[in-house]
User: Fold these one by one.
Assistant:
Number 1:
Amino acid sequence: MVEQVEERIENQFYLIDKPLTWTSFDVVRKLKNLGRFKKIGHAGTLDPLASGLLIICVGKHTKKIDYFQSLPKTYTGTLVLGKTTPSVDLETAFDQEYSIDHITIEKIKEVIQQRLLGEIKQIPPIYSAIKLDGKRLYTHARQGVTADELQIKIREAIIYRFEIETTNFPEIEFEIECSKGTYIRSMVRDLGEFLDSGAYLKKLVRTKIGDYAVDKAQSIESFNKENYATLSES
């Protein structure tokens, strides 16, 4: 019976609510120590300044990582028009300021409808974990290399839903449902450019991965390896 319980706990996946400033690898490393897991990995990176749902796969369930990564993702957050940063979030300092006098909510919705829904193409942010020439893009960026100097490959993504509202313009609250491989910071950057202005990401939370929701996730502080999620038999 003890062996059966150990097997059940070791070969599972866990829904974790990643806190701000932690990297996804920080979470994996912490849980590996807490659970004394031999084999562990995460199914989809979250930036340090993003919080929300992170799926941690353990033991035999690491074979399910590709499956989890393939599921659609849902994010909520806040973007701000009129300013930019090199990282497109608050990891780096503001570098440019733009006019927003010509921007209306109707214009934002029009741009989203025409250019940021359905199948889109995007260039990942230079402050991202993609490898280029053997180094992470953020390593190039921190060494002073600009995005124009790097040949970052264009990526394809599908945006199923991009809804906005605002009560404190130029801050825009949003909810985005998208495919695997979507860079929300790229969407924010591109929206600013399409509006002949600029934009940065102030807040980002991943609320869902497929049907798995952050409100069912454990915090790292309260992590208990016996509170596991289970896959269906199908």
Number 2:
Amino acid sequence: MIRKNPNGDLPQIHPSAFVDPTAILCGRVIVEENVFIGPYAVIRADEVDAEGQMEPIIIGAHSNIQDGVVIHSKSGAEVTIGERTSIAHRAIVHGPCTIGDGAFIGFNSVLFNCAIGQGAVVRHNAVVDGCDLPANFYVPSTERIGPRTDLNALSKVSVQDSAFSEDVARTNNSLVEGYKRIQNEF
């Protein structure tokens, strides 16, 4: 479902993107080319700051937002998801938040008030809250990363993790083409 927010902003969706009919996109959302947005995802840009302003939620080209993902933002802060980035099933991305190109965010992970660097991997059920994660860093499953976390204790993304992230992005890119081809059949 594509709908306006209370300010009257309507999502802007590139014609090559696929948005599942069960997904909800509301407000100042920008979906770039060849993006896959899966079933029951909710992307909602509707809150404003103290001055009545709102930044957009931007989903970069060739990215995938999988089933049940929620993307929202506090007080109109910007959320930017880079190109070729995967946000896996039921993850929550709550702005302010920036996620770099080629990142992977695992199942049920929660991101809030943070920046995730290019090529970073946040595995399943992890939390990143209130800090900036540099490029190519690896967050293991179930870890909680915050302002007091010693980032020097985190490892870099391995070749295998990077290959996995690229494979997920590639797989979901092929889904865009397939679902676009049959979208009038549902």
Number 3:
Amino acid sequence: MNWLFLVLAGLLEVGWAVGLKYTEGFTRPLPSVLTVIAMVVGFYLLSLSMREIPLGTAYGIWVGIGAAGAAIAGMVLFKEPVSTLRIASIVLVVAGIVGLKLSSAS
């Protein structure tokens, strides 16, 4: 269950990162409220996952999911540049996430 909490927390990190773009500096009420909710729930789920998953593993995976997901979302939603180097970098982040999971005792 802790790993599920961690993955959901990572996905919510992607959600609030994308949401920040839509808030336009927290000037738009609905995107601002949804972004803050995603932040709070994501942090809560991260904290639950850390009951059993080591800090370095949990935080590294959470940040990795957020970074890779935000980069992909930026390319898809905001037409940010897509390049071989960018895709390769995302693959390396995902490889790091898998490595942290495989090396975890939990």
Number 4:
Amino acid sequence: MAKSRNQKGKILVLEHLLQGTGESRIVTMQEILDKLLEYGITAERKSIYDDIEALREFGLDVQYKRGRPGGYYLAGEQEIAAAPESVHTKEEAGISKNAETEKKSEPVIIYKENTLDKEEIQNTEKAMKLQCDASREKEIREYFGSYGEYKLKESGYLHVTVPHIAGPKFYGWLAMMGKDVHILKPKKTAASYRDYLKTLAKEYKGV
């Protein structure tokens, strides 16, 4: 799809739409696409996913709520700090001033330092992939921090790539996540975690 002239403004429109949202007030993908068209911006769904990920990297805690309809919102129960506003942003985007009237500086989400125990990392060159429920994104980002690469899929799941990790401390954290975090690969690590759970279960056999 050819890019329309206001592509630089696409992420600003998206950011503007997310303001005022919450778990009970989401914005759907179709609403995002419709609003972009109002500004003369055409976009593919994949580019919207990339823009949402860019907003997360900037610090906005964008969550995805599954359901019918599913949609995006900004989580509010976070420690926040004011983000500086670019002096060239509106001019570069080509968006009318009316759409941005009295827009306040956007909040930046400050995540805690990662709590991953470095001793649990088995191999920094070998990747481990996890599939996570998007509702657990805050805990996941705070646990892995800069060790992780995060990608929200269209299915609503968050895929996380981290160095190869194993051991009882990591498995203990994984158990706290319940069914919300699943090891996709390596399969051997998933099997090792399964055996860890089986060993714990044996301790309560006959109770």
